[in-house]
Design brief:
This protein has about 240 residues and is mainly alpha-helical. The protein contains 11 helices and 2 strands; from the N terminus they run ααααααββααααα. A hairpin with a 2-residue loop joins β1 and β2. The longest helix is centred in the N-terminal third of the chain and has 28 residues. About 5% of the residues have low confidence.
């Protein structure tokens, strides 16, 4: 077990130290519901103490629903590759990659979802209020916050799975996937921040957890043989 946890390669050492250092930096410089969160959230609060773009149609339909559907489509494409790999021999070389993508994406979204559902941190739009024309995020809630880490951002950052899954065989392609994942995650983070759904810290921790989960899934797949023969019994064999 210790052999699995400790970094062994240069790539693993870099990832491990980056995760440790970035976590410490966020805890110290960007605390949840701290000054930086408030400064970036304040421009989107109107004179009535409400988030102006909370119900914005464009942000909801395109920035929220459309982008989320794109992430789901990418996951479904890889599910299709896994299924087709039992039928088409040419796709068998992609089976492990596609299955790794699915497991990483599902794992990161599910684990972050559990953290979020059990979090005491509330969403900015639930906490914001005015104190003599001064905006503050200190409303006392009667229910659990359930808003940390950022759920929508975690869907975008779930695409980091593409980078780890493809990097061993398609290194250049995996780098482009990483760029796409970070851009998608940042856009989805920004959408929720201007709507008042999340603070910056919520989304940064969504990124941190997505990377950490995908990294350790990658380590597991690299050092554990993947045997899919059991699934082939339920699918037609290639002719």
């Amino acid at each position: 077990m210790l052999k699995f946890v400790l970094p062994r390669t240069h790539f693993e050492q870099i990832n491990t130290w980056c995760l440790i250092c970035s976590a410490l930096m966020m805890l110290y410089f960007i605390p949840v519901n701290g000054a930086i969160d408030h400064a970036l959230s304040l421009p989107w609060v109107n004179a009535s103490g409400q988030y102006t773009l909370k119900e914005n149609h464009v942000l909801i339909e395109y920035g929220h629903q459309l982008l989320k559907n794109m992430v789901i489509a990418i996951a479904l494409i890889h599910l299709g590759i896994v299924i087709a790999s039992f039928i088409q021999p040419r796709l068998r070389t992609l089976r492990k990659i596609a299955l790794t993508v699915l497991i990483m994406m599902l794992s990161s979204v599910a684990i972050i979802g559990v953290f979020k559902a059990n979090s005491s941190h509330a969403c900015p739009w639930d906490m914001v209020q005015l104190h003599q024309h001064v905006v503050a995020w200190d409303r006392t809630l009667l229910k659990q916050g359930a808003c940390f880490p950022g759920g929508h951002a975690s869907a975008g950052f779930a695409l980091i799975a593409l980078y780890f899954a493809y990097r061993d065989r398609f290194i250049q392609l995996s780098k482009w996937f990483l760029v796409i994942a970070l851009v998608m995650g940042c856009i989805m983070s920004a959408v929720q921040m201007v709507r008042g759904a999340h603070f910056l810290s919520h989304n940064l921790w969504a990124l941190w957890w997505s990377w950490a989960i995908d990294f350790y899934c990658y380590k597991w797949f690299m050092h554990t043989p993947l045997n899919l023969r059991i699934f082939s019994r339920f699918l037609p064999k290639a002719v």
